Amino acid sequence: MEGGGSSRRWRFASPNPAVAAAGERSIQRHLRDLHGCLDERGPRPVIPLSHGDPSSSLSFRTAPEAVEAVAAALLSGDFDGYASRDTNLAACRAVAEYLSCDLPYKLSPDDVLLTSGCTQAIETVMSVLGQQGFNILLPRPGYPKHEAHAVFHKMEVRHYDLVPERGWEVDLEAVEALADENTVAIVITNPNNPCGTVYTYEHLSKIAGTANKLGMLVISDEVYGHLVYGSTPFVPMGVFGDTVPILTLGAISKRWAVPGWRFGWIAICDPKCILKETKVFHSLTSFKMLTTDPATFVQGSIPHIMKNTHDEFFSKIIRLLKECAEICYSEIKEIKCITCPCKAEGSFFMMVKLDISQLSDISDDVDFCRKLAKEESVMVLPGTALGIENWLRITFASDPAKLKQGLERIKSFCLRHQSHVN
């Protein structure tokens, strides 16, 4: 048999370079790296404080009403095939009604596009807007999937800063300086991943006004919507749909603690129908014809999940997140080389600053996370993965006892590596 030696020229030897460029911006790449640093034979269990999957903790089990709705949908046998128009319409109507509760106008089922999780919502929006020669404004630090898909579609990415001294608010002066006639959109995340901040009504109003002034769309990632436990209430960006057209991205993954169910949406919050006039709406619906829908049985269960989940479930999750955020903030204050500019008020995350000068044998945030994984079996995400060096993102959506244990291990690690140079 003839071998496949290097002398032979294969015509598929040059895959799309945009794929590798986009993949470099994924959190998964950093998580795989950290997993490779773990001592699998270590005597202590791994404590993952690096990614936002609350379902891994028994404390964050989803609502029994949600489980019952999915079980009923499966047992009925009515949702084993492709989704019918009626199934899709019912799910869209449920999402529209759910979101409309917080808006000054009503969304219709036609304003909602269903996606396989919020990740596919990001992919869809970036695929529709992404063209060479255009640019998009993304936050720094920020969730890198937005950037990965923008890069894949050859858009120029321009980063605006979130200001830690102002509670991680958007630097709107920088936004105005960055934008030009080729800027198509600004992305915000509220409640924020990775910073844990919740934007006020006044700040969101200023963002909407700035976007209107610059003639750009607002893409609002609200996958952590309603997961707030501080003094600032959650305000959906869609409230300002009369000021500027908004694409709201969301999912049940975080509020219901079911990321594996892969049900998300794009909501077109545009009462003036600007996106229909500019053909963006048509392009979004056309692109959805090229992709897969959420699993049919999940679509079939959504009306029941959104209508029947008791408020007690949501209240319990909020109390638990508040407790865990307090634990994280108070424990971090005891670690000399790590500081937190502000307590988290929403989502599952806290961004903390790492002072490398106080540590020996640690070169940067990536080195810190690798050695922490190896020595303490604790995983936290380096800020480099989110566009900001020598910071760390800590996830506290965990069982409180396990969270305390993980933070104690971080404290022990920092003491062991503490520099003795004054």
Automatic annotation (TrEMBL):
The keyword Ribosomal protein does not apply. It comes from the Eukaryota. The modification N6-(pyridoxal phosphate)lysine is found at residue 254. It catalyses: nicotianamine + 2-oxoglutarate = 3''-deamino-3''-oxonicotianamine + L-glutamate. Its EC number is 2.6.1.80. The keyword Nucleotide-binding does not apply. InterPro entries: Aminotransferase_I/II_large, PyrdxlP-dep_Trfase, PyrdxlP-dep_Trfase_major, PyrdxlP-dep_Trfase_small, TyrNic_aminoTrfase. One of its GO terms (molecular function) is nicotianamine aminotransferase activity. It is an enzyme of class 2 (transferase). Residues 45-410 form the Aminotransferase class I/classII large domain. Its cofactor is pyridoxal 5'-phosphate. Keywords: Pyridoxal phosphate. One of its GO terms (biological process) is L-tyrosine catabolic process. Pfam families: Aminotran_1_2. Belongs to the class-I pyridoxal-phosphate-dependent aminotransferase family. NCBIfam families: tyr_nico_aTase (TIGR01265). PANTHER family: OS06G0345200 PROTEIN, TYROSINE AMINOTRANSFERASE. This is nicotianamine aminotransferase. The lineage of its organism: Eukaryota, Viridiplantae, Streptophyta, Embryophyta, Tracheophyta.
